[in-house]
Design a protein that fits this description.
about 75% helix, mainly alpha, about 140 residues, 8 helices
C-alpha cells in the first residue's frame, strides 16, 4: 500500500513538472538576488566608508560568508574586487577631472593610508596616481 501511494505521489509530481521544494528554492533565489543587488547599490553609494562582508552582513541581516558566495555567483566578482573597482573608478575620475591632492582623493574613496592607496592604484591601473594624472591631463605636476 505504501509503495502504491508513493508511486501515485510520484506520478502527480511528474505531471506537475515540479519537485518538492522547487518553489521554495525559487523564492529563496529571488530574495538572495534582491539582497545582493541592494548590497551592490549600497557599495556604489557608500564606497568611501569602511566596507566588509561582516559589516554588510550585519546591515542586511545575512550571513557574511553566504553573502560573499551569492555576490560572487551573481556578479562573477568577489566582493572585495567589486569594492576595489568602484573605488578605483572614482579615484581615476577625480585624478582626471580635479586638482585635489592625491592624499585627499585617497581619503575620499575610502583609503586612510596614502601609501596603501598608491600601491592599490598602481596594481589596478599599472601606474602610480601622479603618473596617471599627468598622463590623462598632460600636466607636469609634481604633487605626491
Amino acid at each position: 500500500e505504501v509503495r502504491e501511494e508513493l508511486e501515485k505521489l510520484k506520478e502527480e509530481l511528474d505531471a506537475d513538472g515540479e519537485t518538492p521544494g522547487a518553489e521554495e528554492d525559487e523564492n529563496k533565489s529571488k530574495v538572495n538576488s534582491t539582497v545582493v543587488q541592494e548590497v551592490k547599490q549600497y557599495v556604489d553609494k557608500h564606497f568611501s566608508k569602511k566596507l566588509s562582508l561582516n559589516i554588510l552582513g550585519k546591515l542586511f541581516y545575512v550571513n557574511p560568508v553566504y553573502l560573499g558566495q551569492v555576490f560572487k555567483n551573481r556578479y562573477n566578482l568577489y566582493f572585495s574586487e567589486y569594492v576595489l573597482q568602484v573605488r578605483m573608478s572614482c579615484a581615476k575620475n577625480l585624478l582626471e577631472t580635479t586638482a585635489l591632492r592625491i592624499s585627499d582623493i585617497a581619503r575620499s574613496v575610502g583609503y586612510q593610508d596614502y601609501d596603501y592607496f598608491s600601491i592599490s592604484f598602481e596594481k589596478f591601473t599599472g601606474m602610480k596616481p601622479l603618473a596617471y594624472r599627468n598622463c590623462t591631463r598632460g600636466g607636469g605636476e609634481t604633487e605626491s
